[in-house]
Write a structure and sequence with these properties.
The chain is of the alpha/beta class. The chain is built from 12 helices and 9 strands.
Amino acid sequence: MKEYMTYQQTQMTFLKVNGLVLHYQHIRTRSNSQRGNRTFLFINSLGTDFRIWTDVVDILTEFGDIVLFDKRGHGLSSTAPSQSTLDDFADDAEALLNHLSISKCIAIGLSVGGMIAQILACRRPSKFEKLILCDTCHKIGNVQIWNDRIKAVKGHGFSSISGSVMQRWFSESFHKTNPETVAGYRNMLERTSKSGYIQTCEAIRDANLAEVARQIKVATLCVVGSEDKSTTPDDVKSLVELIRGAKFQVIEGSAHIPCVDNPYKLSRAIIDFINDKL
């Protein structure tokens, strides 16, 4: 049996932070004492819960402990009663790390999760060993795009956008070869809290993290799928140019969610980066 399969997985766990109940999972690996007590913090994307990381987690448990959580308004976590900013999302993640007494970790964020990770690394550079930003940018989309998305969900529900979202999440070839997986992730999106989704859209719409990115002093890898139409390789390159010393890698054939459509390649990039091979 491979070492990365020998870990202790906790049951569903809940924590009250910032007036909300946060659903999280802390996986402690049996070999982590030999790995310098390394911990990976995963932050998921808009319209998903932390199950998107499952295949990557199965690989990375060989290299450290794992912390996963459903950000506010997603999965089994509570939705805020009113509008949230990306700083509020970062507050939740920081509170969780403090609750778990994690003094240092590697943050891995996808899309809006990558924006939240940028804020965390800027705020608390001493708390982060390294930063992996997947398919994200300092500014995602524009006001009109997000207002149109919000209007559609408010007026007609998720079914009005889920088809086009799946086209951005996964490449055309992935749709052809994995239709059941695409259907499952469409279910995940459509079962997201409507108000939680809209609040997150508003937070992304209103955020420009250019100055935050310029202040990041944590070693950073920016990864993007070659087929990503939400945060294109050129978009991610613009983020790389803002973060001092950031490295850049394209995952060929992936779209917006490489942890699902290419978990091995994404995991390989992460492992090489933490081992200073990139």
